[in-house]
Amino acid sequence: HGSLAxxxxxxxxxxxxxxxxxxTPLSVTAAGADxxxxxxxxxxxxxxxxxxLSRVYAGDHFRHSADASVTLGVKAGEAVLxxxxxKFPLPGAAAAVPEAKEGKKTLRRA
Length: 110
Fold this sequence. Notes:
This protein has helices at residues 2-15, 44-57, 63-87, and strands at residues 21-32, 35-43, 96-101, 104-109.
């Protein structure tokens, strides 16, 4: 879950002009025991973090494996962007550049 969420976040950050913050919140609704549960996100990093940590809170993963999955997802996202940039280069477009943020790698366009 963390890997997919991180890959998703890296690619969407690229499509969002390198910005982590969303101008339109992302909403996700799931069935809960007492009815639907809706979560809203205004940041791609927060979406990724919550997705990754949910597996820890559920007892499915340890924190270090959740962090490792995010690192793997960032690398996968970088590979997706590199492959896309290679196949569909934009004139004057900068390459994806990793940026450190709160101990995790996020991606921004230079």
